[in-house]
Amino acid sequence: MRRRKMLGALAMTSIGVTTRVSAQGAASSAASATPPSTATASPASATHATGATPSPPNAMCYIIWPSDGTVITGGKLWVRMGLRNMGVCPKGFNRPNTGHHHLIVDADLPPLDQEIPSDRNHLHYGAGETDAHLELPPGKHTLQLLLGDYNHRPHDPPVYSKKITIVVR
After folding, report:
1. Of the candidates 86, 78, 94, the residue with the CA atom closest to the CA atom of residue 61
2. Fewer Cβ in 10 A, N or C end of the chain?
3. pLDDT 10s digits, 11-53
4. Tens digits of per-residue pLDDT, 112-165?
5. Are 53 and 92 in contact (CB under 8 A)?
C-alpha cells in the first residue's frame, strides 16, 4: 500500500513547478560544451561529511534541456533534469540509491557537508519532479543540478551536473 502511494505522488509531480528567479548573482563565465550524456558524478569532496547517504560510484545527474549555450527568447523555459544509476524519490523517503533534484541558478555549489539551502538560487524539487518551469530575466545565467538525499543533503560522493550557461533575450 505504501509503495502505491509513493508511486502515485511521483506520477503527479511530473508536471513541474513554476519558479521565478531574479537577475541577482547572474554568472558571467561560460561553461565548456559537453553533451549531457557525458556528464559524470563528481568524486567525494574533502569537505563532505562522513556518514552522509551513499551514492553509487557511477551515478550521474545532468541537464537534458536546455543545453549549454542555448539562447532563450522571452525568459520562460522548461528545465528537464536527468539522472542515471540512481532513482528519484520524494524528500523524506529514505531509500537506497535515491534522491531528489535541486537546481542551482546563478550560484556555485553550496557546501557539500551541509543541507542544501532553499532560496532563489537553490531551488528544491522535493516532490520528485524531473522538470521545472523557470522564468528568468534577460541576461546570462548558469544552471547546475545537485542531487539531495531524503534530508536535502548531498550524497557521498556528491552527485551533481556540469554547470551550463544560457542567455535570455
Report:
1. 86
2. N
3. 223 333 334 444 333 333 333 333 343 344 444 333 445 568 9
4. 999 999 999 999 999 999 999 999 999 999 999 999 999 999 999 999 999 999
5. no
Give the number of residues written for the chain: 169
Beta strand spans in the chain (E): 18-20, 60-65, 71-72, 76-84, 87-88, 98-105, 122-124, 131-135, 139-148, 164-168
The CA-CA-CA angle for residues 94, 98, 101, to 5°, reads 110
Q: How many CB atoms lie within 10 A of CB 151?
A: 12
* Grid coordinates given for 160: 551533481
Distance CA 108, CA 148 (A): 16
Residues in CB range of 21: below 8 A, 6 or more apart: 105, 106, 120, 121, 123, 134, 135, 136, 137, 141
